[in-house]
Amino acid sequence: MSLRLRLALAGAIAILAALGLAAFGLSHLFGAHVERRAVAEMSVQLDQVLAGLERGPEGLTLARTPADPRFQRPYGGLYWQIEGPDGLQRSRSLWDSALDLPADTLGDGGLHVHRLPGPEGDALLVLERSVTLPAGLGGGSARAAVAMTVTDLDAARRDFMADLAPYLGLLALVLTGAGWAQLWVGLRPLSGLGARIAALRAGRAERMGEDWPQELRPVAAEIDELLAAREAESARARARAADLAHGLKTPLQALMGEAARLREAGAHGRAEGIEDTARAMRRTVDRELARTRTAARASDASADAREVAERLVAVLQRTPDGGRLDWRIDIPTGTRVALDPADLSEALGALAENAARHARFSVTLSARTQEGWVLLTITDDGPGIPPDRRDALIARHGRADETGTGLGLAIAAEIAEAAGGRLTLSDATSGLTATLALP
Asked: Where is the major localization of this protein (predicted)?
């Protein structure tokens, strides 16, 4: 899962959780508000009940009932009840039931709010008040209560949430979209970071630079320092390779001179042995120098394969072997490989020289890409190399003939391997095809 998708999912979950909590809180607040309004309305109705009390021949009665018709309809949802010195009086809506008020102590004029079961089992919101009756009403104390079913309150809460739900859904979509936009803008520099690193790898850029957000500048600076360290190490490696070549050149020349003197003295066998040893040492040195140079430069190297091939063919066409041949270059413009131009020229040059030496009429240099690799091929129409000798020539650095075919293959193979690639030999329609697979 990508970082962007992880953050988007986390943000969406957080938004949904926050909106869920908000919906729960709004529902609770709305319910509390509706209940407060209901209690305020019942307080007015309770005042109306108390104001309608009169004492008649039969005792304390309610001469004026509240105007709401639900008090008169059996189980109509609104109820009143008075418990006084003359007994219990209740609204017609209670029918043959009574409010089961809790046995609590109220001060004069004190109010209590209860939730009690109603006459039909419905929950009731009850407002209770204790009053002291005046002498005109016979004196004493009375408990008056007004109740209403909470069904209407619950229905109001449900309707409120039903009306609120579309707006919460729209808010969730807007917040999620804003989160996606924020992620896209915030994480865009990471895509640029990957693109710049790819450009460094392909050789289209030399440094990360400083044009990065503050959070990414330390990363870019560390990469630039790493590149600088690698370049310095590459320079030291090339210097060591040059020193090695220079240091071995004189001893090898001395050995060849000693072999020549022995040959002049008539010791042909000993001279040939020294010459073979010196040539083997030179091949080994050339191979290891090629490996050292290529490995030191392969990390940040890049070369245009067509440009290198064109320069190489231009040189070979001026040689006796290359001047008699028809050279064809079928390499797309802009084909780049992760190899230093000098190393690519050396590898292609070794293969092209062998092809020129053995070709009859033509040599073709071509290239194609395949899953992150560039396949460079050099095809000639010469006699080729027997299949049973090809692996030995590359692996053991042998020689196909006295002209040095094996040495050229060995150098090309070492350069390709040091760059992370490989050299393969295969049959052509008429001749041999050498393929360099390079990143």
From this structure: membrane
